[in-house]
Design brief:
By secondary structure, this protein is α+β, with helices and mostly antiparallel strands. The chain contains two helices and five strands; from the N terminus they run E-H-E-E-H-E-E. The chain has a five-stranded antiparallel β-sheet. The N and C termini lie close together (11 Å).
Length: 76
């Protein structure tokens, strides 16, 4: 999961989804405006750093979410 900052509306959400979908190896992407995150199913050659770079290139801040014991997924 990627935490994303800077989304203001559905146009932003669509821009991010389209950017991520253009990456080779991405099988599925769901971008949540409400939760400020994207859930991505991918396989090689796609790597997490490429996902972050792609979102940042589209004009938004992104970071990989990390799991914290007992607290679910949190922004990193």
């Amino acid at each position: 999961m990627l935490m994303i900052a800077g989304m203001r509306d559905n146009a932003c959400r669509e821009t991010i989804a389209e950017a991520i979908e253009s990456i080779a190896g991405v099988n599925d992407v769901a971008v949540s405006l409400y939760r400020s995150c994207a859930t991505i199913v991918h396989e090689p050659p796609c790597v997490a750093a490429e996902l972050v770079r792609t979102v940042e290139s589209a004009g938004y801040a992104a970071e990989l979410a990390r799991k914290e014991p007992g607290n679910g997924v949190k922004g990193g």
